[in-house]
User: What shape does this take?
Amino acid sequence: MGRFTEALPLFEETQAEWVARKSLKQIQAARWAVARCLRSLGRYHDALSLQHALETENMAAGTMDGYVFEEIAENLVSLGKPEEAKPYFMKAVEELSKDEWFMKNEAERFENLKSRAGM
Assistant: This one.
């Protein structure tokens, strides 16, 4: 709906609620949503910082998240760094290709990611 200014405080409230409940997976999902909203508001540096923090947490846990990689890439492109974004688009393609729901429902988005990765 494009009402990101109204949405951001709601995402932040949701994040605070999951933090209070100490639900790590939900905290990370909520933080991702806050960062995604920040990107939509043009706050690319803030969004990128949050996504990099999620990337670091995932690496420490031995996991990877294609959606985080996609957002890092999108923020880098928005900041005028398309070459720096390419490896993240590649990582997004690699990880999201393993996501059955994504592959079934986001074929056009997946092809766009591949193209932007130079594949």
User: Anything to note?
Assistant: The helical segments are 4-21, 24-40, 44-61, 66-78, 82-96, 100-105, 107-117. The two ends are 32 Å apart (CA to CA). The chain has one domain: 4-117.
